[in-house]
């Protein structure tokens, strides 16, 4: 059985003392590919080094919406250059809108659209972070589709929306990725969303080191090996086997990000 963790942050300091051991555990758990996300440009070189160190890791480059104030032409140029020059870059992100922790709405929207343009110019998918901003994000994507005449390719990562919001992004052609939050007992709307996504649009992730899933919740860090617990819970919610979820999510990740096994 093969699993793909489509969203990790292994560049964090708390992974550095034992990253080889962390890798041994993800390999032992059947994790065959990983997509390393990026929050802001200062991470670029570290993430690139990790991807070069481990052949199963691909990565994305982008600017997180909570770092939108850091956007300038230099940042745009860095994203465009690295994404266009390194074959291990498979997406732009993580990017998007977050109105839960910041209220610079117009700035976030501008940075989001600028990164959509970069992704389009390179024919790369996007990894979208969306918190308390589903309606506004949907409007941007609808406008983009109207102006460009085509859909943006990508994934709603660590998805926490309700079924109505989930359907919005499915209708726009997006994949929906579930993290450890889907294992939380009281995450009822996430449970409902995980049950309704069609098998060909479903992805799984850890978003490590954050959001460790049950039964590892409460540990000081999450890690890629734990994506198996996400897959197991999604299987339970959907009435499917673990093997079926592993197969469909792996196939979907390969299709979206152009990965090979």
Automatic annotation (TrEMBL):
Any coiled-coil regions, as ranges: none
Residues that bind a divalent metal cation 2: 94, 129, 157
Note describing how the cofactor binds: Binds 2 divalent metal cations per subunit.
Keywords carried by this UniProt record: Hydrolase, Metal-binding
Catalytic activity annotation: D-tyrosyl-tRNA(Tyr) + H2O = D-tyrosine + tRNA(Tyr); a D-aminoacyl-tRNA + H2O = a tRNA + a D-alpha-amino acid + H(+)
Keyword hit for Metal-binding: yes
InterPro entries in the cross-refs: Deacylase_DTD3, DNase_TatD-rel_CS, Metal_Hydrolase, TatD-like, TatD/YcfH-like
Family: Belongs to the metallo-dependent hydrolases superfamily. TatD-type hydrolase family. DTD3 subfamily.
Protein name listed in UniProt: D-aminoacyl-tRNA deacylase
Biological source species: Cyanomargarita calcarea GSE-NOS-MK-12-04C
Lineage of source species: Bacteria, Bacillati, Cyanobacteriota, Cyanophyceae, Nostocales
